Amino acid sequence: MFAKINGMGLYGMNAFPVSAEISTSGGSVPSFDIVGLADISVQESRLRIRSALKNAGIATKPLCTVVNLAPASIKKTGSLYDLTILTAILAAQDIIKIDVNECAFFGEVSLGGDINPVHGALTLTIAAREHGIKRIFLPAANAREASVAEGTEVYGVRNIRELAFHLSGESEIEQQRPFIPDFESTCGLLDFADVKGQENVKNALEVAAAGFHNVLIIGTPGTGKSMLSKRLPLILPRMSFEESLETTQIHSVAGVLDTRNPLVTTRPFRNVTHTASAVGLVGGGSVPKPGEISLAHNGVLFLDELPEFDRRTLETLRQPLENGEINITRAGGMATYPCKIMLVAAMNPCPCGNFGHPAKKCSCNERQVQAYLGKISQPVLDRIDIQIEAAPVSYTEISDKEKGEPSTSVLRRVEAAREIQARRYSGTAVKSNADIPAGSLREICILTPDAAVTLKNAFEKLGLSARAYDRILKVSRTIADLDSKDTIEKRHISRAIQYRSLDKKYWWGV
Ligand SMILES: Nc1ncnc2c1ncn2[C@@H]1O[C@H](COP(=O)(O)OP(=O)(O)OP(=O)(O)O)[C@@H](O)[C@H]1O
Ligand SMILES: [Mg+2]
Ligand SMILES: [Zn+2]
User: Fold this and answer.
1) How far is CA 407 from the centre of its chain?
2) Average pLDDT of the chain?
3) Whose CA is nearest to atom 24 of ligand 1?
4) Among all ligands shown, which has an atom nearest to the Cα of 221?
C-alpha cells in the first residue's frame, strides 16, 4: 500500500513543502523506518507516534512501514513532521475516508496522543497556501495564529483521536474562525505627557519617529533618558498589515508569540539589557534563531546604558543596521532574518555620570572618560543619525503641575510626515527618510540657497565626514517633512546639524 500526505518544513523563515510518502507491506516482523535526510529529532518521532497511537486507543495492523520525507535532498529537523508522518500511517492503515489531497498536516505529537504547538505556524501556513494547499491541520494552540493567513481553512487539532475521527468521516473538527486583530490597541503604553521639560529631547524623538532614524541620548543620571525612550512606542506610526505580518512571523519562528493575541499590531520595543550576548542580540545558535534585532523588526531596539555593553557585541550590530537583514550560515543552510529597526540608545557621558553637568563635579580623569566613551566605536556612532543631550531638568520644570503635550498629538504630526514619505517613496523599496539610498539623496533633499551655505559652513567648521553629511541631509528631510515643506530650509538644516554635534563635544573630534 502506498500513500502520500502533505506537510511543511521550516528553516529560519523559509518554509517549504515536505510530503510523507508511506509504503507498507505485510511481514512476519513489523518495522517502522523513516528516510529522507531525517535527523535524530525526526527519527525520535517513531517512538512518539507509536506511543501516541497506543495511548489514544487507535488499533493498527502490524506492518512493515517505510516513510520517506520528500524531497529527500533537504535536511529535516524538529518535531513538526510528527503529524505528517502520523497522518500517513492513518492513510496506510485505511483509516482515512475523506480526500486529503489539498490538505497539509504538521505539528508535534506527544506520547499521550495530544498535539503540541510548533514554532512558525503562520509562516508555514502562508507558504502552504502559496503551494496550493486549501486546508491546514495543525496544533490547536497554533490555530488562531495560522488563521491570520487569509485564504486557507485552518483546523486546530487537539489530539490524534479527534484527527482520526475527522479523517474517517465520523465527526468533524470545527474550522478555526479568522482572527480579527486590533490595530488600535495602545494598552499599557506610556505617555509623553508625564515628562517634564526636555523639549529638545522630545523634539528629537519626534523627528526620529517620523523618519525612522537611529537616536542616541546622552545625559547625566536622572535626567529622564530611560523614561523618554520608553515613551517612544506611542508616537510611532501605526503598523500596516504587511509590517504586522512580517514582525509576527519572526516572533512566531522565535517562539515568543502571544498565542491569545497572535498578530503583532504595535511596533515592537525591545529593551535589551547590557548582559545580552552577541547571539542574543543578532541571532544564531545551531538551528539559527532570530536575535533581539530581528524581534525588533519594524520597531525599536532599545539599548540602555550603551557603554555597559560588550564592545564586540555592539560591533556585531554594524552590518545588520546597514543592511536591514541578517544572514546566519550553518551546516544545515542559511537563515535570513529581516531587521529594519530604529536603534535607540541611552548613556551617561562618563563612569561617574557627571561629565558636562553644569553644577556637579565629574570625578573621572580624562583617560577614564575616554575609555568609557571609546567603548562605542566610530562606525557604530556613524550609524546614529540623531544624537541629543538630555540636560538636567530645572526645579521650575520638575515642579510644574501642568502636563506636557500628550503623545496622541505628537503622533498626529509623525503620521502626517510618514504619509508624505509614503507618497514620495511609493513604488520603491524605501519606506522612510532613514532608508534614502546615497544615490538619490541629492535629488530628494533639495536645499534653499541659504540652507546650502549653512551646511557648507558646518561641514568645514565641524570637519564632518561624508557619512555624517549624508545623515544630516536625511534628518533635515524629515524635519522639513514635519513642517510640510518640499524644500529644506535653513532652520531645518541647522537643527539636523545640531543633532550631529555631540560627537565633537564628547568624542574629542574622533
Ligand atoms: N523630565 C522628567 N520629567 C519627569 N520625571 C522625570 C524626568 N526626568 C527624570 N524623572 C524621574 O526620574 C526617574 C529617573 O529617570 P530615568 O531613569 O529616565 O533617568 P536616566 O536619565 O535614565 O538616569 P540613569 O542615567 O541613571 O539611567 C524617572 O523615573 C522619573 O520619575
Ligand atoms: Mg536610565
Ligand atoms: Zn565622571
Assistant:
1) 24
2) 92
3) 221
4) 1
